[in-house]
Amino acid sequence: MAVSERDQARLKAAQLAAEIRRHDGLYYQRDRPEISDAEYDALMRELRALEGRFPEIVHPDSPSQRVAGVPATGFATAPHRSPMLSLDNAMDESELRAFDERIRRMLGGRAATLDFVCEPKLDGSGVELIYRAGRLLRGLTRGDGHTGEDVTHNLREVPSIPALLAPEGAPIPESASVRGEVVLPLAAFASLNARREAREEEPFANPRNAAAGSLRQIHDIDFDRLHSLEFRAYALAEGAPEGTTRQWEILERLRAWGFVVSPESRACHGIDEAVAFHAALLEKRAELPVEIDGSVIKVAELELQRELGALSRSPRWAIAYKFPPEQATTRLEGIEAQVGRTGALTPVAKLRPIRVGGVTVSNTSLHNQDEIDRKDARVGDTVVIQRAGDVIPQLVRVDLDARAKAVSEGATLECYRLPAKCPVCGAGSVRLLGEAVTRCPNLDCPAQLKNNLRHLAGRGALDVDGLGEKIIDQLVEGGLVAKLSDLFTLTQDELEGLERMGEKSAANLVASLERAKQTRLPRFLIALGIRHVGETLAEILSAHFGDLDPLMDAKIEHIEAIEGVGPTIAESVVRFFGDRANRAEVKRLRELGIGWPAELPAELPAGGAAASMAEGKVEGKLAGKSFVLTGTLSAPRSEFKQRIQAAGGKVVGSVSKKTSYVVAGESAGESAGSKLKKAEELGVQVLDEAGLEKLL
Ligand code: IVH
């Protein structure tokens, strides 16, 4: 019998996938790549091209889907050489002095005056660069501090990241881990945003987001953006030559290898000098080419750093001394009510654009009617805006002197009230007794539907590629989609009829909708947009109930009894599934092919319908057992996972007291090492692959 073209493609894709996995192993577990990045890319491109032609052959475990890595972003992940910690904050001078006193006390009064290295706190994106024999091998984002995303390709384009460490500068270690911050200088940030606005694209909120966004480009990489980034090095987690005793020497070593080290950095003797450094830096802030949000004060001597050690999140030997939030005044030009996913009417202040804390602010949320009343903000007022660090800009207060002056000049400033009718569908808005939020009660309100569709297409939910805001607007306004499930009935022809939608993008969207149908229960729950059910809760509920039906029929008390679930959430879930229209919608979504594998319940509920339905699912010799897989096994982890699940067991990501077994593969890399250590600490049984085979 002739082999069909599709079967040939399937075979070829499987071969490519195996090859890519082998190179992943060489690169991530063994640090011994056999091919160049470009050759690796070529393999991946070939696989993607095949899958693009035959979407039906895409296997969920294909490296193109990155199920084992970080699927949400499309980047592979890798463990850091050692955790990338965060910093504790001091918000004012007294907190900084308390830090100094605390550590001197811990050192037992040995140091009456400590030496510090003071550096600017760069407001960018932390990265780790790993060099092997002086050659850049890999670059990772900070990620969760333990595991980062592999953005090596993009980092190689950053001009201040040396591909080779300068050998004349200082001896080159076999392995080095250089830490620092990727920043986007302010001038480059301004021109990047100008270009984006010219293309009618959303400008970046601040240079930090722009830098992080540039590093995480996947498709159609904009090289200009990467070329305008700057890397500033501040730490060497591995590779400092023997005999290095001080942080200052590390900075010098980094400079000698060819890195940019913040030129503002200083060695300071005693906390008074650190305070003076901070004040001088704040003075200079506006003239600096990059955005900073404070200073970092580090104990200079490495031996003392080691002695002081770290807490789980941050070292004891360093602190970030933050600048006070920047404020600016501008005019409140209007207040607009916007309708959110849950129908909430949010008043948004429209401001005369103003630069504050490095960004231009033209809108800011006023949250709700009470907040407006409390601040007594009126259209036409002069208002004080503040932006501190990560915090979104806030309207702090009204300048009452300015108002008095305006009034004396004849202006009338009226109090604002949220509209009595939804600005999108015209339904009467309601505010329930005891609630701060005013809502549009119309579940079919196009604003809610659009927001719900955006939510459903989001990365944490069904992750539908190509379903952008403009398309959603057209689908809703054109009447093609009146409820979520309508999405999955869309045809290529219907989509081609939309503006800016060619044959190819229509086909791609149909394919991604088709792909999105195979999901996981937690993602489906998120997609439904149940209030209060985000990622964590969706996981908890799925793990508890195993499948949707027992959850849909669960009583409030069953849900409330689950650890980590409060009464508000329980009520929200029960109310959602108690609604006839919602149940019909769920039914239709399933009829249209949306499905998921059963999640194995973590523990059985105490009783009721949920319990009996869930109980039926746990069978097999590994029922109730949970496994953590680590290190390199002889086959992809997904394969072992499937076999464990088939035997009734469960595979989880991290080791806890509840873990039954840790299965350790061959090379104990960083993450394997730490998982093994954890297993030992908690007394969890460790198996090798043969041991697992025996159990299976
Ligand atoms: S030292 C263990 N030095 O701030 C020490 N970090 O809020 C941690 N940062 O994750 C890093 N400028 O991304 C250090 N001069 C500097 C820094 C700096 C910016 C970032 C870094 C860190 C975050 C903590």
What this model shows, in words?
The protein is α+β, with helices and mostly antiparallel strands and about 700 residues long. Helices cover about 40% and strands about 20% of the residues. The protein has 26 helices and 20 strands. A hairpin with a 2-residue loop joins strand 4 and strand 5. The protein is globular and about 70 Å long. About 35% of the residues are buried. 2-(butylsulfanyl)adenosine binds near residues 122, 235, 296 and 318.
List key phrases describing it.
about 700 residues; alpha+beta; Helix Hairpins; D-amino Acid Aminotransferase, Chain A, domain 1; OB fold (Dihydrolipoamide Acetyltransferase, E2P); 5 domains; 5-stranded antiparallel beta sheet; 20 strands; about 40% helix; binds 2-(butylsulfanyl)adenosine
Short description:
By secondary structure, this protein is of the alpha+beta class.
Number of domains: 5
Q: How does CATH name the architecture of the largest domain?
A: 2-Layer Sandwich
Tally of separate helices:
26
CATH class of the largest domain: Alpha Beta
Read across the widest sheet, the strand sequence of neighbours is 2-11-10-3-9
Bound ligand species: 2-(butylsulfanyl)adenosine
Mean pLDDT: 87
Give a quick account of the main beta sheet: strands, pairing sense, barrel closure: 5 strands, mixed
For this entry, what is the oligomeric state of its chains?
single chain
Helical content (DSSP H or I, runs of 4+): 25-40%
- Beta-strand proportion: 15-25%
User: What's the CATH H-level superfamily name of the largest domain?
Assistant: DNA ligase/mRNA capping enzyme
The gyration radius over C-alpha positions equals 28 Å
Find the structural class using helix and strand composition. Answer: alpha+beta
State the end-to-end distance: 37 Å
Task: Report the uncertain regions.
Answer: 67-72, 602-617
